[in-house]
Design brief:
Helices cover 84% and strands 0% of the residues. It is mostly helical. Helix 4 runs parallel beside helix 9 and helix 9 runs parallel beside helix 15. The longest helix has 35 residues. The chain is globular and about 70 Å long.
Length: 478
């Protein structure tokens, strides 16, 4: 199968899987938010931020290095597998041991048992992750997506059952553990294709991968500090209930991006790695990736910003009203953040994790004081700080990260990233004005969403036809 055909096949399956998983995630939030309290979600936000930091060291970047490297021997692959499992098991033990100290830092003893249970997902996930990465390296996304969807269904089912049984925040933890366990089992059943790792763990097999992986981990660590600084400060300065009111719209915003961007960026990484020595093709792939992600994200984020209060009523119900204004700001933040996300595929595909590390170190000195200042104004202040920072970093991000690697000019970069946002602002601005006389919030959301989406498609046909043509070709091949 040609590279083009493999790419479209991968896009089709990642699209289908991402849509299904996103529907499950939104359904889980909509259902569990009516059973659990904002305080439960605030506690889980603290657990998540700790695990996200620890998870950066789970494989020390060797799995990404495995995809980036074109030729890997069976001996190297086996050593990489056991290195990943061993490191993840060690990480699990460390988190369990320091969980009382983490609980002391946040001032909430309830975090100790929560972290103890949640940390088991490191080892459970490590047992199957390389099997999945090998399939993605070969652009074989169909079985990967099937496994991910089934694991998500199982995790949702367990979370719902335990929440209804009155387990509170533990329902979210048990759901995560169940999804990780189901994913690992299904990966080995359907994707291993008879492969079994040799009982081999030698440093010389892993060493060359660690050079790339080490830079990647360092970059991700610094980036994670910047990206979760809001939750750290929120956990320290806000109550658990206030943090829950902020963290849930924050997670919804990121879920939109996680639902859209991986459809393209997950495939762009191995694609760029395959043509990394041809700068012209790399530039074309990157700009198309940027245009696709921005064009698909823009109407969702901008529409959410215009109808934030209605979205909160529909998804979260009573008791979450304050989250509406926070979601509105964070949706705008997400729209701009989504334009920067594809650069990760460019950096990894070109093997330049070192450049990413330098950028993220510089950003850390900007993000920390800005978010500290924003946190003094409560959850809304943190949200405004995130949005303002993302707007300011748009041009510097191009100059430092994009231009040196693929030679894309600022004009073509800006058109690919910002034109869809401008189109969406016009489309949903008109839609908001048209449906504003309606009294029922759900009716406003449904009518405004439909009118805005149709207007966005019509305007895109006139001013962003490349995206419309790409979407048409993709749908035609399904």
């Amino acid at each position: 199968m040609s590279l083009r055909k493999r790419t479209f096949a991968a896009v089709r399956w990642t699209t289908a899987g991402t849509v299904l998983k996103s529907l499950l995630q939104f359904a889980q939030v909509a259902v569990l938010a009516r059973i659990l309290s904002p305080e439960d979600y605030g506690l889980m936000a603290m657990v998540t931020v700790v695990l996200s930091f620890a998870g950066l060291f789970a494989d020390f970047g060797v799995n990404s290095a495995y995809i980036q490297r074109r030729d890997v021997s069976q001996k190297e692959r086996s050593s990489l597998y056991w290195f990943n499992v061993s490191l993840s098991a060690l990480l699990m033990i460390v988190v369990m041991l320091v969980s009382p100290l983490i609980a002391l830092f946040f001032g909430d003893s309830r975090l100790t048992p929560l972290l103890f249970f949640a940390a088991t997902t490191f080892t459970i996930g490590a047992l199957g992750v390389q099997v999945r990465m090998n399939a993605e390296k070969e652009l074989q996304f169909r079985p990967v997506i099937v496994v991910e969807v089934f694991a998500a269904v199982i995790g949702f089912g367990v979370a719902l059952a335990t929440a209804m049984a009155g387990k509170g925040v533990y329902a979210l933890v048990y759901g995560s553990i169940s999804a990780a366990l189901a994913s690992t089992v299904l990966l080995w059943v359907f994707l291993a294709r008879g492969w079994r790792p040799m009982f081999r763990l030698k440093f010389e097999d892993v060493r060359s991968f660690l050079r790339f992986g080490g830079a990647l981990v360092a970059s991700n660590l610094v980036n994670q500090i910047s990206m979760t600084m809001d939750l750290f400060l929120g956990g320290k300065l806000l109550t658990a209930a206030q943090l829950g009111l902020y963290s849930v719209p924050r997670n919804l915003t990121l879920q939109i991006q996680n639902a859209v961007n991986p459809i393209i960026t997950r495939i762009a990484f191995p694609l760029i790695a395959e043509v990394q020595h041809d700068v012209a093709r790399v530039r074309l792939i990157y700009l198309q990736t940027l245009n696709m992600t921005s064009s698909t994200n823009a109407p969702i984020y901008v529409g959410t910003a215009f109808f934030a209060d209605e979205v909160v009523v529909a998804l979260l119900g009573a008791g979450w009203e304050r989250s509406g204004s926070i979601l509105q700001i964070l949706a705008l933040w997400g729209a701009f953040r989504s334009t920067g996300n594809p650069v990760g595929s460019l950096l990894l595909g070109m093997g330049r994790a070192d450049l990413s590390l330098k950028w993220n170190i510089g950003m850390l000195f900007v993000v920390a004081p800005l978010l500290w200042f924003g946190s003094t104004f409560g959850p809304e202040g943190i949200a405004w700080s995130l949005f303002g920072l993302m707007v300011v970093l748009f041009v510097p991000g191009w100059f430092v990260l994009v231009r040196p690697l693929c030679k894309a000019g600022l004009k073509e970069y800006s058109i690919a990233a910002l034109r869809p946002i401008c189109i969406a602002m016009v489309a949903f601005g008109v839609a908001y004005g048209v449906v504003s006389p309606l009294d029922d919030p759900l009716a406003r959301l449904a009518a405004g969403g439909a009118f805005g989406a149709l207007s966005y498609l019509a305007l895109s046909f006139l001013f962003n036809r490349q995206w419309v043509s790409s979407m048409y070709e993709l749908l035609r091949r399904i």
